[in-house]
Amino acid sequence: MDGRSAILFLIDDRYRTGRDVPLMLRPVMGVPLLKWLTFALSGAEVNRFFLACPPAFADAALACFPETVSVTAASDAELSDRLHVFLSTAPDGEEDVLVVTGPVLYLPGTRAEDQPANAVMISRRALMDALDEETVPIGSFLRRAGDVCTQRDGFFSVSAPEELPDWQSLLTGSVLRRLTRDGVEVWDMGSCWVEPGVEVGLGTTLLPGTVLQGKTKIGFGCTVGPNTRVIDSVIGSHSVVEQSRLEGVQIGANAQVGPFANLRPGTVLDARAKAGAFVELKNAALGADVKVPHLSYLGDAAVGEGTNVGCGTVTANFDRVEKHRTVIEPEAFIGCNTTLVAPVTVGKGAYVGAGSVVTEDIPAQALAIGRARQQNRKEWAIRNKQPE
Hints:
Blueprint: E1 5-9, H1 14-17, E2 27-28, E3 31-32, H2 33-43, E4 48-52, H3 58-62, E5 70-74, H4 79-88, E6 96-100, E7 104-106, E8 116-123, H5 124-132, H6 138-145, E9 147-150, E10 155-157, H7 168-181, E11 185-186, E12 193-194, E13 199-200, E14 205-206, E15 211-213, E16 217-218, E17 223-224, E18 229-231, E19 234-235, E20 240-241, E21 245-247, E22 250-251, E23 256-257, E24 262-263, E25 268-269, E26 274-277, E27 280-286, E28 291-294, E29 297-303, E30 308-309, E31 314-316, E32 326-328, E33 333-334, E34 339-341, E35 344-346, E36 351-352, E37 357-358, E38 367-368, H8 380-383
Parallel strand pairs: 1-4, 1-6, 4-5, 11-14, 12-15, 13-16, 14-17, 15-18, 16-19, 17-20, 18-21, 19-22, 20-23, 21-24, 22-25, 23-26, 24-27, 25-27, 26-28, 27-29, 29-32, 30-33, 31-34, 32-35, 33-36, 34-37, 36-38
Antiparallel strand pairs: 2-3, 6-8, 7-10, 8-9
């Protein structure tokens, strides 16, 4: 991109499309068309945007821009004055500016015929002069004085909602190709899907069926997948997430998740923690080196570092009125098939016998056993044998 500024006109075309939002705000695989455009332009070093938008759609449109760019928004009533200020404050040496006049996608590097798109490059100074002449309509001036961007430049017009599914593979392919250029290994371009704005570190491997959404950030040297969905989560470097679902989660370095784990909002795993097979965590904090290997549910819980949580452990956190918190202090050992009835605290270094129901706090270094005493009744089966 020659310049570092772009002007985007979001046209209210609902009367033409018959939809409830303008075409540029229609989703492609859950992501508005405008977001695909702004993140692609940001990747091409456009860092200043001017958005001309009807007030009713301003909030939705502004949510489509990367947090790292500057955005100036204006409605039709204040368009000329605010646009003039935007152009006059451009960086020194910026001669041309990109103007998007309608629904368009930016797919750099995509081979296509030389068809015109809803975008032009125009002299910044000439556009400022035109704004000073109140009798010059901006639209006609852009058509007359701008250099039309074409598909060979990477710009593609979209004219109807029915066309959006046709762009899915090209959009996802563009994001995945950018990741591979940045040192990410993608095993199957056809089955992975990464939203614009997701960050993936050098040396990370995305296995088939990986879906990364929202504000997800993945560190260096991770392995994610297969068949894994990560939403609005942070995964530390050298961690492994296998066949699992994560939403609103923070994971430290060298952690392990899955297979078949479900990590829900508010969950935090510190370094080297493990949430293994068929583990569900909700608003749970696992300290460093905590192991929850399999078949457990921890909700509204804090687990201290070095603790081992046996399979089948459950925090009973809901009393039909309120949620209550369970605290497990460092270096504890929770036996298999334990139920921790919140609110309850397990002290540092304490042991809980397998099959226990814990309803009272456990002191540090104590052993808690909360189960009925075993009774063996000799020859009971013989005396009570049912007739065949």
